[in-house]
Task: structure prediction
Amino acid sequence: MGPLNEAAGPATVGSNNRPFTPSLLLGLALRPVPLALIQPALDALVAAVRRRHPDLLERVSAYADSGICIDPTDLPFVLLLTLDPARPRLTARRALEPGEASATIRGSLDALIALTDGKVDGDALFFTRKLIIEGDTEIVVALRNAIDGADIDLTEDLAATCGPLAGPVRSLIRVAAGVIGRLGQDMEAVRATVIAPALARAEMQSARIAAVERDVARLRRTGSGR
Amino acid sequence: MNQQRPELVCPAGTPAALKTAIEAGADAVYVGFRDETNARNFPGLNFSRPELKDAIGLAHRNGAKVLVAINTFPRAGATDIWHRAVDDAVTLGADALILADIGLLAYAAERHPEARLHLSVQAAASNPASIRFYAERFGVRRVVLPRVLTVAEIKALNAEIAPIETEVFVFGGLCVMAEGRCALSSYATGQSPNSNGVCSPAAAVRYVETETGTASMLGEITVNHFRHDEPAGYPTLCKGRFVAQDQASYLFEEPTSLNTLGLLPDLIDAGITAFKIEGRQRGRAYVAAVVSAFRQGVDAVLAGGTPPVASLDAIVEGGRETAGAYRKAWR
Amino acid sequence: MNPARLTLGPLLYNWSAEAVRDFYFRIADEADIDTVCIGEVVCAKRAPFLAPQLPEIVRRLTAAGKEVVLSTLALVMSAADLNLIAETATDDGVLIEANDVSAAALAGGRPFVAGPLLNIYNEDTLACFAGMGAIRACLPAELPATAIATLAESASIPLEIQAFGRLPLAVSARCYAARSRSLAKDGCRFVCAQDPDGMPVDTLDGVPFLAVNGTQTLSHHYLSLLGMLAPLRQAGIDRFRLWPQTVDMVAVADLFRRTLAGDLDPAEAGDRLADLCPGRDFADGYIHGREGRVLVDMEMAD
Result:
């Protein structure tokens, strides 16, 4: 298992791998706000894909226990995908704990969406270094093959969840990828440059509290592991 | 000039890719079952029995054929898995079976004398004596040639073995070693194309980000290290970078893809029955791009023109293309 | 149980004419080996070197009581290759080892040996070759003991297992000995002669991995099944193949013979084999169903 852990890189994978300015790091402590906004959309997406492409989960049924970290490099958060056929989940997270994901897929949001829609070839993205894969390669290959085989169209899949509103929703979603991306980036910039300095003291306090909470959580996990 | 219209045989790892291939102009699509009976036994890939049934229906409604690859070498004591694959493919209406193992060919020829049998590239039948053996003994109608012969050699071979048909690879991943006779993958990982239907299995592959780039590992073997500005390739051993004669190099082959668009007039002239595109493990985008390029290319040459220049650079391994063994200098 | 027999596989490398002659003469005179395979298996371009001295070597081996088998080319591409095989395969005075389906077919029902480079993975295929005239079969390198046992159970002909030496892993139309020296195959200057035990191929991080012999790729590790001889005998395997390497093959054969006879403990034999092959690494992964390059039988480890 040693080498596999090495491959996963630092203790936490995802956003933390990218260089951040100190002010941006402070901004990161403002955790829940944008992610909470994104989560319902992700839930709807998973529900739609699950309903419209049941074969997708069947193709990856051997990896039900695994988590995959999807890291859009131009967004300030990562997505944790779990493939339990009974309860697949796509969760937006600031960062992952070690061991939560057995593999990481990293690329621009554009590239990841085009890949999901089957508009680009995963191997081609990899050959041209626009896609980076770490950890358990097998699960990534399985997911890639399953998604490509499912004939997914993210826009259509989301719109289909909306019944009579499908039309307007479709046009809304058409720009959603870009908007989510910009929203994420904008929020980050705003937080970093405006809110963060103002909240600096409060942030440091909450960061300290968060650190303590993390330590407690870690202790609890270690304890229950024995 | 020989103007026989070659059949364009295209890959599909999923029903969606099969649909894409047919839309892009495939005359035939080749597929495999979702298990170790075929040489692209990759996770998340290939067809269940019901999927194959639907796929054959769709293909036939659109005038395309479905060829089922059962081209690994059955495991001793477990040949019934492969026998079942043959039986099911025939029952579901496959237009041909692509087989490599002599024992399995014997089974198919005996149980399903009406089935059309093709010899897989994994059998590496590279000469008239071998090809005639498979034709006479098992009634093989078409041979997929190993990627070791030049165009001139293929033309001479066709003249000698007619009416046995030949099929050659025109695009995609390139085996550097004679197919079906390579154990490099199992030497490093325990899994081989012959036994398990996988070369460099994904479960054994790891990409390790380093300060200067990405290292690809297969089991404990470092296959390559790509700088950030270098195009990457599959972590297959024959496309790896190794040290020999005190020098690190692509000893066997660069990360590269076979592309014969420019050779199409010569290949058509060589009297080949079918042109095959590699890549059941590739996505729909690849299938669409490559199949359309070759559909247009073949049609253009048959109409007396030259193949249109299609940019496939973006989808080929290592960003590089080769005419491979079709040109003698490759050897 | 049938008596155990040792086969010397064909010399795969491009040795000088003198070295080849000396090697086979010494095998004839001194080695306790039952069957000797000889013939150019790897590269058709090299075949003319062996041809002139082949009759004399065969005579000497036959006179010494060895069974002589002519091994044929693995990758048969040209009409000239085929003609050569056809000539040997249809000579009733010669027993060939077929390393390509073409040779087995050209034998036309005459007895032949099914070589290790044919793909015999299962009982159906084995039966087909036996039906074509194979009098025994040497199995492919990557087969695990479980498959070997299954094959042995159903086999109507004796089976041979590769037991010592670099494993033949792949053949190609391309020459890597030439390529590594920036030469084309057509103008190769026979640089493969500089690699009498294969050209070492290491990974970027310096791990020895493969050995190149012209168009052939072999394992870096020497296979040694000294520790598996007894169970393989129990499974019904009568024959064991030793691949010629640049080590004292007479002494290697002696170790295998005495271990098979039960006169030498496998662990002791392993130690002595390591002494005979200084600087070489050993592996036996395939027989244990593992990657070929690992050593599972730790008695062989230093």
Notes: The mean pLDDT of chain B is 93.
